[in-house]
Amino acid sequence: MSVLKNYSYNLLYQITLIILPVLSIPYISRVIGSHGIGVYAFTSSITQYFLIFANLGLNIYASREIAYVKHDVFKRSKLFTEIIIIQFIVTTIVLFAYYLYIYSFCRSYANLYIIQSISILSMAFDISWFYIGLEDFKKNVIRNIVVKITAFVLMFLIIKTPADLWKYILLSVASMFLGQLYMWFGIGKFIDKIHLNKLQIFQHLYKAKFFFLIITIGVIGVNLNKTLIGLFVNTAELGKYDMAYRLITMALIMITSLGSVMTPRISTIYIQGDFLRIKGYLKMSLQFTLLFSFLVIPLLIGISNNLVHWFLGSQFSGAELYLILLSPMILLNSLSNLLANQFMIPSGNEKKYLFSLIVGCLMGILSSIILIPKFMVIGACLSVLIGESTILLSHIYQVKNIVMLHNIIGKGWQFIVACLPIILCSLIFKKMIWNTIFMTTIQIIISFLIYFGVLLMFKNEFLISAISRFRVLFKYRVNI
Fold first, then answer.
1. Contacts for 274 with CB less than 8 Å, ≥ 6 apart
2. What are the residue ranges of helices labelled H in 106-164?
3. Closest by CA position to 363, among listed 392, 328, 399
4. Cα separation of 372 and 387, whole Å?
5. Which residue of 166, 310, 349, 459 lies most exposed, with the fewest beta carbons within 10 A?
6. Pairwise CA distance, residues 262 & 338, whole Å
7. SS3 (DSSP) at 348
8. Cα-Cα-Cα-Cα dihedral of 221, 224, 229, 231, to 10°?
9. If pLDDT is split at 50, 70 and 90, which confidence band does 270 have?
10. Which pLDDT tens digit goes with each residue over 89-126?
């Protein structure tokens, strides 16, 4: 299956991940409120620490290993069976530890923690990594879209008051669990039965250790700030921070979605030793990342005030500052994701990736501990940027002798120049007295036209090539 087709499937899902929150967040933020959202964010941040151990980094490791052996039925069947057995054993142990933790330390929100244990249970049945390794994104996309839309509809039907927070959490984790079960339908077409005496189960725990550490550091990096805000500030401010972070994540989805498509593809090419094609894919991905990052960041900053007011509601006043401070994360995280998922992991450089994450996480943790007690949520936002910047700089240092970034970055300056008129446009619109949804929409449309207009004026190779590719794809679909 082609990269473009896989990306189209993945992009369809990512668009769903954007559209549904755009429709649901305004409702949830007003019904549940900043305090309820904060409680959910705090309890979820604790649950995520247990999810690390339930996952063990096996999903990333297994998708890469499946990509290596996808054409050998016996090897992929053997690998699939071994990973599944590990998932069931590990999940059982983690669930026991989780319930012990709830009983010992979490009496105040015990019911919410118990509901969230379903998300841990779902890890035992997760086989999405298998289809990713086969580069079969269609099944994942169909599953995810059906589950998300169903949960979206039920949300409006059953969640009516702040007291329904538990229903909101149950809906989120139950949809995740049912989605994992759906992936099992039809798995028999790809997998043969393997005798137990041919299995080598626990070797994968050692091989996946780097991915486990990578996932661990990533989760700590994302969730530590939420935990500390919940402890040192209050749940209402945590709710504002969490919503700002979600908006940034929504912007990241469109950019980083290419990484999940490219990882198995580059893994296969790396085994074949075709480094010239790898360089071509990296150049394409880097141009794609720069294109959207330098469009989204200034646009998001420009509409932040109105976005928070209309999108989240009056309870979240103040979140616009957090949104502005977190916006550079879009570029930093996208570039880190590109170097990691599209080169370091496929090429077996997990140690270098892990080193970068450790350094970045330590910087993030240290800055969080120092800044959050003193500067509250603003300190949390700054610590995120410090951690993300450190990871990116370390990634660049780690690959500088392998990947010559200056050779693949092309005319990256064009994207920077193209974003400058967006900043000017935002300043003009802020002076206007008609701060309506209609005017904000006009601002977004004008910014898009100016940005892409400037790039076309520069005859940007990547944009012109992308337009040509989609024209060919569209004509092909029409002829069919």
1. none
2. 110-122, 128-133, 137-158
3. 392
4. 14
5. 459
6. 9
7. coil
8. -170
9. low
10. 999 999 999 999 998 887 778 899 999 999 999 999 98
Structure tokens at 36: 């309820």
Work out the percent of the chain whose per-residue pLDDT is above 70: 85
In our burial notation (b when 16+ CB lie closer than 10 A, e otherwise), range 48-59 reads bbbbbbbbbbbb
Question: Which amino acid would we find at residue 47?
Answer: T
Of 120, 460, 121, 76, the C-alpha closest to 294 is 460
Q: 421 and 301 in contact (C-beta within 8 Å)? A: no
How confident is the model at residue 377, as a pLDDT?
92
DSSP state of 144: H
Joined together, the tokens standing for residue 112 give: 């919410």
111, 146 contact by CB (below 8 A): no
Among 323, 347, 417, 389, which residue's Cα sits nearest to residue 64?
347
User: Which pLDDT belongs to residue 476?
Assistant: 47
Q: What is the pTM of this model?
A: 0.73
Collapse the DSSP code of 319 into the 3-class scheme (helix H, G, I; strand E, B; otherwise coil) and give the result: helix
> For the stretch 107-119, what's the b/e string if a residue is b when 16 or more beta carbons lie within 10 angstroms of its beta carbon?
eebeebbebbbbb
Contact between 465 and 433 (Cβ < 8 Å): no
Cα separation, 283 vs 287, whole angstroms: 6
Nearest to 180 by CA among 104, 245, 268, 118: 118
pLDDT for the residue 407: 57
Q: For residue 185, what are its two tokens?
A: 């339908």
Q: At what angle do helices 110-122 and 165-182 cross, to 10 degrees?
A: 10
Q: How far is CA 438 from CA 306, 346, 426, 445, in A?
A: 11, 45, 15, 11
Region of 33 please: left (phi>0), alpha (psi -120 to 50) or beta: left
Euclidean distance between CA atoms 111 and 51, whole angstroms:
18
Alpha-helix runs per DSSP H in 273-345: 275-302, 304-307, 319-326, 329-339
Q: What angle do CA 323, 328, 334 make, to 5 degrees?
A: 115
pLDDT class for 478, splitting at 50, 70, 90?
very low
353-382 pLDDT tens trace: 778 888 888 898 899 989 998 899 999 999
Of 421, 435, 192, 200, the residue nearest 309 (C-alpha): 435
Tokens 């300043």: give the residue: 427
Token digits for 449?
A: 């036209």
DSSP for 203-241, written as a single string:
HHHHHTHHHHHHHHHHHHHHHHHHHHHHHHS-HHHHHHH
Confidence of residue 321 (pLDDT cuts 50, 70, 90): very high
